[in-house]
Amino acid sequence: MSLDNQHDDFAEENGYAKIDRYNSKKINKIAANYAEILSEIGENPQREGLLKTPERVAKALQFLTHGYDLDAAEVLRSAMFQEDYSQMVIVKDIEVYSMCEHHMLPFFGKAHIAYIPNGHIVGLSKIPRVVDIFARRLQVQERLTNEIRDCIQDTLKPAGVAVVMECKHMCMSMRGIQKQNSVTTTSAFTGQFIIEKTRSEFLRLIAANLA
Ligand SMILES: Nc1nc2c(ncn2[C@@H]2O[C@H](COP(=O)(O)OP(=O)(O)OP(=O)(O)O)[C@@H](O)[C@H]2O)c(=O)[nH]1
Ligand SMILES: [Zn+2]
């Protein structure tokens, strides 16, 4: 499969068929800027290996920020089901890839999310989808954490939501302070998770190695 085809197939493979994935005007504009950047860093944008690089980077950037084109609440609403289940539901170890808004370098790690149903449950896959929709934007980890919490709380209206994220920031490892192993943890809670006992149960369960 050619590189172009791989990119073209991205939308469908990821269930994001309705994204206007290839706004070619946008791609061309971003690519032109990257050709200039290549020159500025002392490279020759005309050498063979770099000929298609500006276009590749433009497409990669569009992928890495495609969350702007998606509505996380709509995704949740598309798979809400009435169910008489009122115990904690936890989806843990969700891989997260985002980009910090300060340096546009990746930060990545895991999200652990729980909610306590209040009449409705949600299709399990929709929780990582919500994570991705907010992560695939320029972010800070704190806002990303809060946006996931608020979206689940406002849409599903459960008795409580808990979000914990643990991420490594490339802007702190490959440049700047250059700390290779530091991990940043953020958390956000609503409803019953504000109560110490419920929050402790959630934290104990995400720390446990049950599977
Ligand atoms: N709170 C928070 N800070 C972040 C996140 N991602 C990156 N940063 C920080 O954003 C800050 C930007 O600080 P500046 O002093 O303006 O930028 P800088 O000179 O490149 O800073 P250094 O990284 O310390 O070299 C840095 O301290 C980064 O570590 C994030 O998700 N949350
Ligand atoms: Zn950064």
UniProtKB/TrEMBL annotation:
Residues where Zn(2+) binds: 100, 103, 171
Pathway where it operates: Cofactor biosynthesis; 7,8-dihydroneopterin triphosphate biosynthesis; 7,8-dihydroneopterin triphosphate from GTP: step 1/1
Keywords: GTP-binding, Hydrolase, Metal-binding, Nucleotide-binding, One-carbon metabolism, Zinc
Tree of life domain: Bacteria
Protein name (database record): GTP cyclohydrolase 1
Nucleotide-binding is among the record's keywords: yes
Pfam families, per the entry: GTP_cyclohydroI (PF01227)
Domain GTP cyclohydrolase I residue range list: 31-206
Organism in which the protein naturally occurs: Pedobacter puniceum
